[in-house]
Amino acid sequence: MARENATSPRWLNPAEMKAWRRYIVASRRLLEALDTDLAQHELSMADYEILAQLSDAPDRRMRMSELAEVAMLSRSRLSHRMKVMEKAGWVKREACPIDKRGYFAVMTAKGWKAIEAAAPDHVESVRARFVDHLSKGDQSALAEIFERVSDALRKDLKDK
Fold this sequence. Notes:
Blueprint: H1 14-38, H2 45-56, E1 61-63, H3 64-70, H4 75-88, E2 91-95, E3 103-107, H5 109-129, H6 136-159
Antiparallel strand pairs: 1-3, 2-3
């Protein structure tokens, strides 16, 4: 028999449950659709995000630990994706000269060509599947809402 907690759960009311479920279903469907759209370029959303982050970085290189953080991937997941992407010739790893345990992820010329080819289709997909369904007010509200959620999550991670 399960013991009852000293405090009972704060169950979601119908409006909260509706908002939560609609968010979960829509976000999963959106990411699945974006993944499907990128498949024509032989990229996944994770691959695209890694390449996008590297394309914006100085010299198209980042420390692996920093890349994992900004791409929202665990270090083990990033390591796995890097192996796949290295095999495709999009990225390479280089040892960090000042930190013997650290590595840089570096975008190759082939990786640059891959993101250049995928970016127009990806942005059109994002626009058609997401942005075009939002008013300017919706866009501002969503940006504000998810900034608050992200800040709270970041704070929670730092406190642990």
